[in-house]
Write a structure and sequence with these properties.
OB fold (Dihydrolipoamide Acetyltransferase, E2P), globular, about 120 residues, disordered N terminus, alpha+beta, five-stranded mixed β-barrel
Length: about 120
Amino acid sequence: MKKLYILISISILAGCSHINANDFSYQGKLILGHEEFSFSPCRSDKIYWVEPNNSDSYTELENKYYELTQEPYEPVFTKFNGVVKESQKDGFASDYDALFIYEGSFRMEKYDGQCD
């Protein structure tokens, strides 16, 4: 019985070893446009430059965004997964608090000024 307990404990710890402290589900305001690809989390004053983790994610994000908006730069409310990384040293991303690597969206709707 003691061996089984130790084996289960090791399995649980091994499964948790890949967790990244910055990898979470976020919700907030997303704005896309020619010179803006930004995300502002709810209850935060931070603004992140959004960078999809691959071309399929980019297409998915853009398609969902433009289904809800009439034109670029309209805010939408979103809830999605991603990783926050250090801000970039050059380009548009350098003007933002950090870089948000978009990994997938599971909710997006018109922004009504509320962040919940």
